[in-house]
Amino acid sequence: MSLVNFNRCSSENSRFNDVIQTNPERACNVAIFLGELLMNYKTSDGETIAKFLTVVSDTIKQLLLCHDRKLLICAGKLLKLTGSSLNQTDELFDTVTRLASDSRVDRTAQMLFSRVCELRRTSWGQHEIPQTPTYTQPNPYGAQGYSMYIPVSEIHCSSIDQSIIICHAKYKTKNDG
Questions:
Q1: How far is residue 81's CA from residue 70's CA, in Å, rounded to a whole number?
Q2: CB 81, CB 48: distance < 8 Å
Q3: What does the record list as GO biological process (predicted)?
Q4: Where are the domains of the chain?
Q5: Average pLDDT over residues 29-36
C-alpha cells in the first residue's frame, strides 16, 4: 500500500515547484500528505522508509525557499509533524533557526519555526521541560486540585442572593437527610 501511495505522490513531487507557483493550497495539501505517509508507513522492522525521508526533506526545503506566508506556515506544520524523523538533517534545521529570527518572515511562521527549534532541543517532547513550582499553600478561592466548599454562614452577599443560597442549602440538606 505504501509503495502505491509513494508512486502516486512521486509524480506530484517531481513537479512540486510548478505546483507551489500555481496552486499553493494544493502544494500544502500534498506536502502534509507526504508527511503523513512518512510518519505512518514503516518497514517491517519499524524503521522509517528512506525514500519518504528524502521526498519530505526536499519538499520542506522547497517550501522554505518561498516567501509566501501560507507556504512557510505549511513548512512549519510539516516540520512539527515530521521533525523527529528528519532530526539528523542539520542543514534543514539551520535554515529553520535562521528563519525563526528573520524579521521579514511572517510572525506566525516565525512562531512555528521557534516551536520546531524548541521541540528539537527537547528531543521532540521526549524530555520534560522544567516547570514553574506549583502553588503549595491551600487556596480558599478554588485553585486547581482544591475543593471549593464554603459554609453558607461564611458567605456575605446581598439578601436576595443569600436567600437563594440558604434555600438551596436547606433543600440540599432536606433531601440528603
A1: 16
A2: no
A3: regulation of translational initiation
A4: 3-125
A5: 93
The pTM assigned to this predicted structure is 0.64
Q: Which of 20, 138, 141 is nearest to 75 (CA)?
A: 20
Helix (H, G, I), strand (E, B) or coil at 122: coil
Pick the CATH number of 3-125 from 3.10.20.30, 1.10.357.10, 1.25.40.180, 3.20.20.220: 1.25.40.180
The amino acid at residue 36 is E
pLDDT digits (tens, 9 = 90+) for 123-164: 887 765 555 544 445 555 555 554 444 454 554 554 455 455
Residue with cell 494544493: 26
- CA 176, CA 149: separation in Å to the nearest integer? 17
Residues 6 or more apart whose CB falls under 8 angstroms from that of 104 comprise: 67
Quick check: 78 and 35 in contact, CB under 8 A?
Answer: yes
Q: How far is CA 37 from CA 18, 54, 56, 79, in A?
A: 22, 12, 9, 14
Residue 58: pLDDT over 70 = yes
Q: What is the grid cell recorded at 166?
A: 440558604
> Which backbone phi and psi does 97 adopt, to 5 degrees?
-60, -40
